[in-house]
Amino acid sequence: MRLNPYCMCCQINKQEENIRSFEDEEKKIIYMKKILRRFADAEPDESAPAISLEFKHLFSEFWGQPLEDYTEIKKDFNLLMLNLEEKLRRMIRSSGDPLESALLHARIGNYIDFAALSHVDKEQMLSMIESENKDPLDKEEYAHFRSDMASAQSLVYLLDNCGEIVIDKLAIEILKELYPQVEITAVVRGLPIVNDATMEDAEMCGLTDIVHVAGNGSGICGTALNDINTETLSLLNNADVIIAKGQGNFETLNGCGLNIYYLFLCKCDWFVKMFQSELFQGMFVNERRPRLFSSD
Fold this sequence. Notes:
The protein is of the alpha/beta class and 296 residues long. The protein folds into two domains: 5-63; 71-292, Uncharacterised protein PF01937, DUF89, domain 3 (Rossmann fold, 3-Layer(aba) Sandwich), CATH 3.40.50.10880. The protein has helices at residues 5-19, 25-40, 48-63, 71-93, 98-108, 122-130, 139-151, 164-178, 199-204, 230-238, 247-253, 269-274, and strands spanning 154-158, 183-188, 212-215, 241-245, 260-265, 282-286. Helix 1 (5-19) runs antiparallel to helix 2, helix 4 (71-93) packs antiparallel against helix 5 and helix 5 packs antiparallel against helix 8.
């Protein structure tokens, strides 16, 4: 997804909020000028998640502040969802279409996103699951997906956040059972960033016990093709089907032309506008059928 004025302003405002409590006004002006200059020099095809990573390191170096550490938060949300795992598995498997149910539940898990949301509320997360806050998958796209999977030999599942990864595991279980001929690889972030899932989360949640998991070598909140390692790039370029969880994967991959099914919740005003949706409405859209969405 190309950089746009809304995302640029959002990033600038976040940086100002980060330094608002500091007292040195002159230093704050110098810092904000660096932020503005980076956007002034941005290339049209750069993504907000990639630039956001640069800003995190700039903030740490310029202000002498440690990088954010989400280690305990990630463990907390992983445990929260692991405690619900068996209940969710029963709900999914007792439904009329376990695969659709698994994807819907996995999409709800996309709420656990500290990069997009200033506050992630456990009670709201549990309420969304209990109330089955599930906008149906787009029927046409779901039919395309089932057809693609029936003839596929390989699937890459791009994971997004901690906690959410537990429900992704349940979806992968169903996919493995329905399509035993498909070689499935799950991909996590290669470096810690916010609460995004890494290999440590995959191991903690038991995902590595059921499927091959690869780290993408990158610390960007998404999958930037110019920043991931050669293994992940090869996996994506050769995959028959790709599932990409979360807004960050859409932001970094949209426009690449691969056979990607994006699965996420709309968690910011720009995505709400782009998809003409409600806040936290679920999306299931394909990269190769842009008629389903518009960035105008």
